[in-house]
Specification:
cell membrane, 383 residues, globular, single chain, 4 strands, electron transport, Cyt-d_oxidase_su2, 4% strand, two-stranded antiparallel ribbon, mainly alpha
Length: 383
């Protein structure tokens, strides 16, 4: 393998990991949609919550689309295998995000077809389904999926299909794997914690602040328990590995634990991220008035999710194991685009810092002043 190709494959897995980490952070929008009834007791309070999230939902949706697009450009065999094989799982995720977009666009418009309550139900569905199913989908990076790869099929004129799914559920079987479900529910409670922290930062209302502070603690307890369980299960489980210069894949006991040991820089990122999230939770739950929790929690979340993606894809680890045929498992080497495509797309990726800079600028512009009850009563545009 050429050095350049090796570099670009690792570079693109880093970008995929970064986009996935940012997506998990931005799921606080979905988490917030599940907190409306717990935090808002009056219509004006609900309006404040909806508008707080309404100014950010497009960031989550855009990041999800870019995440999928980056996979298509850099690791097309994963895209065709997972998105093409586990299509019921991905269609359910996509549908939940579509109804979210429609809801924010039409829920407050006069004469809307379905009525505000129906759109609020859509937001609630997106909050539960979108988060948990995304967590389940990412869980398959560790637990595997039922597919088979045969590149010789390209020579078969009657059926030139490289990857085939091995069961009729097409992705729905991932939901009944308790390890995937464990990660999905863990991400769900994390999103609710971060939504509470975000409301505390973004809304200037003492009553909402106090209720959100309670929600931080209520949701942090199951999150921490579930997260520690997921980490323990993952580090103690067997995984797949391949040797340098070899395409043969074999089982290695405690694979992800050894990945953490053999990549100490990942362990440092992981521990720093965990410490940052715990600091945000503890201080926000017990301090009299502290609004910076979302930033400590957000940075910590990005670091932890980055670490998990690194454990799944680096150190000769198949990032998409096949539960049907071990040798069909996908790695960053056997599923990547050509060197030319990776090089060209890497030039395009240099625009990413400018995009992130624009997001930061837009975020700051929208949050220059916290949302208040007076603004909601007098503002022209409301979600």
């Amino acid at each position: 393998m050429e050095l350049n190709e090796f570099f670009y494959q690792h570079y693109w897995w880093f970008l995929i990991s970064l986009l996935g980490a940012l997506l998990v952070f931005l799921l606080f929008v979905q988490g917030g949609q599940t907190l409306f009834s717990a935090v808002a007791k009056k219509p004006i309070e609900k309006t404040m919550l909806v508008n707080s999230l309404g100014r950010k939902w497009e960031f989550t949706f855009t990041t999800l689309v870019v995440f999928g697009g980056a996979f298509f450009a850099s690791f097309p065999l994963f895209y065709s295998t997972s998105f093409g094989g586990a299509y019921w799982l991905w269609m359910a995720i996509l549908f939940s995000f579509i109804i979210q977009a429609v809801s924010y666009e039409y829920r407050s418009k006069k004469g809307n077809l379905l009525g505000t309550k129906v759109y609020d139900i859509f937001l609630l569905i997106n909050g539960f389904v979108g988060i948990i199913l995304l967590g389940i989908a990412v869980g398959t990076f560790f637990t595997g999926a039922d597919f088979r790869i045969d590149k010789n099929n390209l020579m078969d004129v009657s059926m030139p299909v490289i990857s085939t799914w091995q069961n009729p559920s097409h992705g729905l079987e991932a939901i009944v794997d308790w390890r995937n479900l464990l990660l999905g529910v863990t991400v769900f409670f994390l999103a609710r914690v971060q939504a509470s922290l975000y409301f505390m930062n973004n809304i200037d209302d003492d009553t909402i602040y106090i209720r959100c502070r309670r929600q931080v603690l209520y949701n942090a307890i199951p999150f921490v328990v579930l997260f520690l369980t997921f980490v323990a299960v993952t580090l103690l489980s067997d995984g797949y590995e391949f040797a340098d210069g070899s395409s043969e894949i074999y089982v290695r006991p405690y694979k992800y634990f050894f990945n953490l040991v053999e990549m100490p820089w990942v362990a440092v990122l992981f521990l720093a991220g965990v410490a940052s999230v715990l600091y945000a939770i503890i201080r926000a739950a017990f301090a009299t008035k502290w609004r910076l929790g979302i930033w400590f929690s957000g940075i910590g979340t990005v670091l932890v999710v980055l670490s998990l993606f690194f454990l799944a894809g680096y150190n000769n680890t198949p990032y998409y194991p096949s539960a049907t045929d071990m040798q069909s498992s996908l790695t960053i080497y056997n599923s990547s685009s050509s060197l030319f495509t990776l090089e060209v797309m890497s030039v395009v990726s240099l625009l990413l810092p400018f995009v992130l800079g624009y997001i930061f600028y837009a975020w700051r512009a929208m949050d220059r002043a916290p949302i208040t009850e007076l603004e909601m009563e007098s503002g022209e545009h409301k979600y």
